[in-house]
Write a structure and sequence with these properties.
This protein has 122 residues and is mostly helical. The chain is built from seven helices and no strands.
Length: 122
Amino acid sequence: MEGEDKETVETILEEQMVEEVLREYQVVPPAITTTGARSVMKRLCEAADIDVPTPPEGPGYLQLHGARRGIGDTFYRMDRGTAQDLLRHQSLETTKDHYSYIDATEGAKRASEMLDQSEDGN
């Protein structure tokens, strides 16, 4: 939006979603920094009224790697290969190692269901 004055930019942003303006004016937003991501996590925790231990017991917000683990967990349950791609692991084995507790839980659930079915058949 080079060459536009601040008032014009504000008017444009009031009329359209930021994502639409970025596409229309072909503006590539900068990559989020670690500091920026932490700031987002702090705001989200406050907005959701999530009680997170503050210093010195904790950081005062949910940590970034925890968000990555949560997203990885969700995708791993849906599709192991997609999880590997999104998490940028070199191999599926690495992804399986990180989320092996899901395989164990799902396996135990299946075994329990199978045992229940065999009892019903007797």
